[in-house]
């Protein structure tokens, strides 16, 4: 299992991103993500994975539509290789 945080940075308009993972998963990575900066308005979910990456997308909690992260949001990850 891997637990870590990611700062999404500033100045962007991205609603999805790819996180590099260690090449220790036989098939892929199953991750739970929480936006610990703006949890009331944004929800980040895993949308894909490989043995070396995890793709996540941010969604607006009100509309359910993919939306850009708020600048400097901190995402907390808890990932398990499978």
Would you write up a description of this structure?
The protein has 82 residues and is mainly beta. The protein is built from no helices and six strands. The strands form two sheets. Strands 1-6-3 form a three-stranded antiparallel β-sheet, with no helix packed on it. It has a three-stranded antiparallel β-sheet with strand order 2-5-4, with no helix packed on it. The N and C termini lie close together (10 Å). 22% of the residues are buried. The mean pLDDT is 95.
Question: Uncertain spans, ≥5 residues at pLDDT below 50?
Answer: none
Mean pLDDT: 95
Given the C-alpha coordinates, what overall shape results?
elongated
Please report the number of helical segments. 0
The whole-angstrom Rg is: 12 Å
| Order of SSEs | EEEEEE
Protein structure class: mainly beta
Helix content: under 10%
Strand content: over 45%
Q: Tell me the total number of β-strands.
A: 6
Give the biggest sheet.
3 strands, antiparallel
What is the assembly state of the chains in this entry? single chain
Give the terminus-to-terminus CA distance. Answer: 10 Å
Largest beta sheet: strand ordering: 1-6-3
């Amino acid at each position: 299992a891997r637990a870590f945080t990611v700062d999404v940075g500033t100045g962007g308009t991205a609603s999805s991103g790819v996180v590099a993972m260690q090449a220790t998963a036989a098939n892929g990575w199953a991750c739970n993500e929480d936006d610990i900066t703006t949890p009331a308005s944004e929800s980040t979910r895993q949308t894909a994975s490989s043995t070396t990456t995890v793709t996540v997308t941010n969604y607006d909690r009100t509309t359910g539509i993919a939306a850009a992260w708020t600048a400097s949001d901190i995402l907390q990850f808890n990932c398990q290789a499978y």
